[in-house]
């Protein structure tokens, strides 16, 4: 397996990319659709380990820092939902050029599952998908409210949303947030996929089950046969205080990928 770091020309600036290329013939190519804000920082090690495991099994992976994230151009306050969607298209086009004869799989994590839904994919791998962007935004803004409360101030979500609507930059846990990103996220919701999809959730209990909200949505979609949904046991690395790994996510995903490509798990 070979890892190559490089930059792709974005709009504006550049995007940092990391390509994991198998030493064996490529079975499929995955594009990582990353989680939101601090969740991405907490999961970078988990995602790197998973990408390496996928590549060692014959699956190419492209990890891409979106505008304002990681080593890409700009600050978080420069990002917009439209710009992030364009970044996903950029990564998809690059992967298709590099691996034109193999299936292209969207590997979405948390809020990343809401990105690129209008693009053509051959399959989807979802890790703890966010069902509605509005909920992700509200949870994010609560971090600001909690910090204010610790300083003896009492704010509310409505006031923060009003600030965003006025064009102001709202600082949340060190991230500058503007309307172009908040509005796009707030309007995004998870849609029923047309392709074969693995939906994975993580629960800490010994007998993990899908969240009730996930079950309701799957029932609303009539839980088509193309969606395989299950819960695995382990820590939730995007939410833990210390950096944690969850091997079950990568292991279950790899078994599904191998089955998709007609390989022995």
UniProtKB/TrEMBL annotation:
Matching SUPFAM superfamilies: alpha/beta-Hydrolases
Family annotation (Pfam families): Hydrolase_4 (PF12146)
Taxonomy of the source species: Bacteria, Pseudomonadati, Pseudomonadota, Betaproteobacteria, Burkholderiales
InterPro entries: AB_hydrolase_fold, Hydrolase-2_PEP, Hydrolase_4
One term of GO molecular function: hydrolase activity
Protein name: Hydrolase 2, exosortase A system-associated
Keywords: Hydrolase
Lineage: superkingdom: Bacteria
